[in-house]
Amino acid sequence: QFIAFEEKLENVFDIGVNLHHLPTKRRIDPIYDALIMQGKQTNVFMATHGFKLTEEKLKMIKEMGQMDLLISPFNKYKLPALLGGFVSPGMESLETLIEQIQPHHVVPTHDEDKHAKGLVSKFAKITWAPKTEEIKSNPILAEKYLDIQDYQIHEL
Fold it and tell me: pTM for the whole thing?
């Protein structure tokens, strides 16, 4: 079921989860927007293409309480501006987001090799995420990183 909403939708499906839509300034492609799932005891920030917070949005997030999980890419993926520019901003942007929202855990998403073919893949400049050992030695990520490499259900 598709549910349209602008900024906030409360008690989705009567299960006590509030959804908060965080739009980017990109008007043509909402895939770059972020979503916060706010439960009674757990908050999840999902930014499948990374996200740059405004002061206003950061204040709103801090008022929600502890962010339990951040789901965001670690790769840096850039196309020429005409083809979309930054698709995923990479580790530096991720580290900034972590420092801002201070999640308990961080899980990478959307970082798999896309096996791309065609014109777009010829122009893509990709900086792959560091290896697990390097991530675990990163002072910002070390205690927060969850090395989940599958599509199974995981419990925090």
Answer: 0.86
